[in-house]
Amino acid sequence: MQTDIRAARRDLLKAMLAFGASSALTACSKSIGLGTFTSLGLSDHLGQGPADMRPWARYPEKTDLIMLADRPPLLETPMSYFMSDRTPNDAYFVRWHYAGLPTHVDLRTFRLNVIGAVAKPLQLSFDDLLTKLEPVSATVFSQCAGNSRSFFKPQVAGAEWTHGAMGNAVYKGVRLRDVLKMAGVSSKAVEASFRGLDEPPLQSSPHFEKPLTIEHAMTGDAFIAYEMNGAPMPMLNGFPIRLVVPGWFATYWVKALSQITLRTEPLDNFWVNTAYRIPITPEHTEDPKHPSEVTTPLTNYPTRSIFVSPDGSGKLRKDVSTTIQGIAVDDGSGIRRVEVSTDGGQTWADTRLDAVIDKYSWRRWKLDWKPTKTGTCPLQCRATNAVGQTQPDYEWNHGGYRRCVIQTLNVEVV
Amino acid sequence: MQTLRVLAVLFLVGAGILAYALWGRSGREASVATEASAPQIPLNMLSTVQPVKDIELEYHMPDMPPGPGHEQFVTQCVVCHSPRYVLNQPVFARKTWTSEVHKMVKAYGAPITPLEEKDIVNYLVSWHGKEDAPAVPTENNR
After folding, report:
1. Residue of A74, A103, A204 lying closest to B55 (CB–CB)
2. How far is A143 from chain B (nearest CA, A)?
3. What would the pLDDT profile of B35-86 be if each residue is shown by its tens digit?
4. Which helix (DSSP H) or strand (DSSP E) does residue A105 occupy?
5. Which of A169, A242, A338, B72 is least buried, going by the fewest C-beta atoms within 10 A?
6. In chain A, which residue's Cα lies nearest the Cα of B88?
7. Does the beta-carbon distance from B109 to A202 stay under 8 Å?
8. What domains does chain A contain, in order, with CATH numbers?
9. What is the rounded CA–CA span in Å between residue A331 and residue A300?
10. pTM to 2 decimal places
11. Whether complex ipTM tops 0.95
């Protein structure tokens, strides 16, 4: 562990030397925290990645990731990993609310408790899940509710992710509804709510817990995963089991899931009533000067496309053909079209869509493009799904959630 | 003769770059190989063969600038989370820092007195914030 980190730092130092000149040039306004920090003449003990000024760190079972925070860890996946359709476990983004995240799990004593409005409360072991219920498997996209938050203008408080608080992985586990049926859900139950092994730092802090309606839990595609990309889950991604809610934001994908409560009254806590809420307005957008009074919990993914390559860090050459590629996602209805504009939105060209991987997976798209003039060129991408949902030209909300505005990526052509 | 000398120099530079690249690659591949070579236990044997997973989190705490409010910040804020939760934020106006600090009291139950709240906000504004903009917008001056 120690040597790993030292080796990582050494590699980063090497990368810094190699990329010294370019990172100095790309140290732009995006480098919020650290920029201020170093300008004050204070020391940060970590090396920095070549792409921007944010520090990188290597956590247990993880590779070098962009570190937004260390305790509790917020780790972002570098864009290069999104060139393949499975995001490796060690590169998968990490987000915990509280420093009291689980660091020690013993499968001999670990139990998933199903309690509340049920005929028979359950205490399921890891092996019970493996042997007593039918396994299911799916490739599913997950995305933090605040993914891409740093691009909101004006900027809002919260984890300042770029586009790397997301990933696509194959999960294996058991259907949520099968577990609930095993417990025998009361007809009075209106919600199932989910808790993990993470503990709040103070007695007075609200335990992280998120609900799904009983209809969603009993008829939807949610499942409890014990395997990620063919391996046990990394601790930081929810070992030993986590909830997977396909098509819904990762805030519902409770990690290290240890308790399911069937409720006859809706869950009333900070995580439902205050956090993770968006305005009830068209496109869920609001005026920064007059934020909306009426909000609703965010739920499923809006239709969205993101550039993966180029990523804006390098330069393209005039009259040399390049392949622009990216990913597109929606709530599971199905991506049907992704268009790219290379002239600031005046004209749009259809991209080639890769084959569908799975219902709730992302879908990859590509377009060959030969720049014909030098200078800064704004690339834009716009996805449309099977029910005609597409992307807005403008959006803002006070939580910096659910970003889905058409992405503009400025590339330098020389 | 001149051409030969130029070619030789180019060759040496090229060989140097190649050697550096290979050296870097071999190191990386070696470290990846060590990780991948760890035997993977079938999931149905995990609870008998290797039932315990244990990780140790190493924190990367940055130094915090001294100044009025530093002590209150360390006592009341860093007890729950790293100072990076300030560092990773934009340079906010006093109004935003005031509401962020108050959120810690109201939503997360931090036992911070109103007086301490004020000290902490002043401390944050002093090195990672700015005073509120005047009522008349001056956006075009920036």
Report:
1. A103
2. 20
3. 445 678 999 999 999 999 999 998 888 888 999 999 999 999 999 999 999 9
4. strand A104-106
5. B72
6. A33
7. yes
8. 1-275 (3.90.420.10), 304-413 (2.60.40.650)
9. 6
10. 0.85
11. no
